[in-house]
Amino acid sequence: MSSISTVIFADLTGSTGLYESLGNERAAAIVLRMTQWIGDAIQSHEGRVVKNLGDGVLGVFASAHEAVSMAGELQRAHQVNLQRWPGPMHTEIRIGVACGEVLEVEGDTYGDAVNVASRLCEKAGPSEVWVNDVAAVDAGIVPGVRFRKLGMFEIRGKSESQMVFLAEWRDGEDAGDMLTMQAGLPSTVTPLDSLLGSIRIHWPGGEREFSSSQMPVQIGRSSEMPLCVPDPRVSRVHARIEWHHGRFALTDQSSYGTWVWFEGSETAVPLRRDTCLLHGTGRIALGMPFEDGAPVLHFEVSGSSMRLSR
Predict the structure, then answer these.
(1) φ, ψ dihedrals at 97, nearest 5°
(2) 72 contact partners, CB below 8 Å, separation of at least 6
(3) What pTM does this model have?
(4) 64 phi and psi angles, rounded to 5 deg
(5) Which CATH code for domain 198-302?
(6) Which of 2, 21, 287, 296 is surrounded by the fewest CB atoms within 10 Å?
(7) Domain coordinates of the chain in residue numbers?
(8) Coil, helix or strand for 116?
(9) Counting beta carbons within 10 angstroms of the beta carbon of residue 171, is it exposed (0 to 12), middle (13 to 18) or buried (19 or more)?
(10) Taking the alpha carbons of 214, 301, 190, 150 in that order, is the dihedral positive or negative?
């Protein structure tokens, strides 16, 4: 019988290095302990472990909220583990979460959500949680987690590009914008990466390159803005670009919105007082969609930790 469920794929990254540095027996024991721990976390959040997949785990939840909450708590707890473990034992976790129709047959789970969660897990970087749009909406407000748009991605097996979100679970400089973490969760995390990046922006009348150390940068009509676009369709303070955990993030602050198009994408990402991570090259429309003749900025990102695989 088919049903709407939330599927989670959790995969260990760097497990090949474990076998090379520790040998087959010790590495296999660590991988087994890790996958059992992930399975226990799934069950503690009212999920069901469908099966272990070598160095990964497939689980299914009736609630998208519980699935995303579990993913965030798991990542935070694992950062505490890594602080205690010696370097050769370090392996990160990447997670894909998708809500959709699934079919359960003799204890196994099949369907579109299984495929999408698997593909999102493949695309996610170490310590990241990638979520499809349905799961992000259905999850609602998840304590300790903030959703950020990654944009439209082609998912193998899907005829149309899919909107994908990053479920940001880390403590950070903007933690004040997030809800308080649930009681009893470890709050100490490993230091965030110090990767430097730069973003080059072209706009009518100018071109500038900003380093990550110069963030945040404000965009707007006001002459006081570092990126001034003197067009009546642009709000006085329209948007800002920040450096967030090794990535550039664009946040709309305007009255009429901002649109972001990434090279290779078929559609633009609309922003209305929310955030999108910038990667690769693309364009930003201010105040109205591209097709309506909006003022446009061109951007090129380098040195970001944002993965570009699609």
Answers:
(1) -130, 130
(2) 129, 142, 144, 145, 167, 169
(3) 0.62
(4) -65, -35
(5) 2.60.200.20
(6) 2
(7) 2-177, 198-302
(8) helix
(9) middle
(10) positive
Q: Give exposure, 26-48, as e/b (b: 16+ Cβ within 10 Å).
A: ebeebbeebbebbbebbeebebb
Q: What is the DSSP letter of 177?
A: G
Contact 199, 278 (CB under 8 A): yes
CATH 3.90.550.10 describes domain 2-177: no
Q: State pLDDT tens for residues 258-281.
A: 999 999 888 898 898 888 889 889
Show the low-confidence residues of the chain (pLDDT under 50). Answer: 172-194, 307-310
User: What Å distances lie between residue 226 and 14, 23, 302, CA to CA?
Assistant: 41, 54, 20
Structure tokens, 76: 């935070």
- Which of 102, 100, 92, 245 has its CA nearest to residue 167? 245
Residue whose tokens read 């299914």: 60
Do 2-177 and 198-302 fold alike per CATH? no
Distance between CA atoms of residues 94 and 252, nearest Å: 28
Contacts of 6 (CB under 8 A, 6+ apart): 60, 61, 62, 63, 64, 66, 67, 97, 98, 99, 113, 135, 138
Handedness of CA 269, 271, 275, 278 (dihedral sign): positive
* Tokens describing residue 258: 């901002």
Round to whole Å and give the CA distance between 89 and 17: 9
The string of pLDDT tens digits covering residues 50-87 is: 998 888 999 999 999 999 999 999 999 988 887 876 66
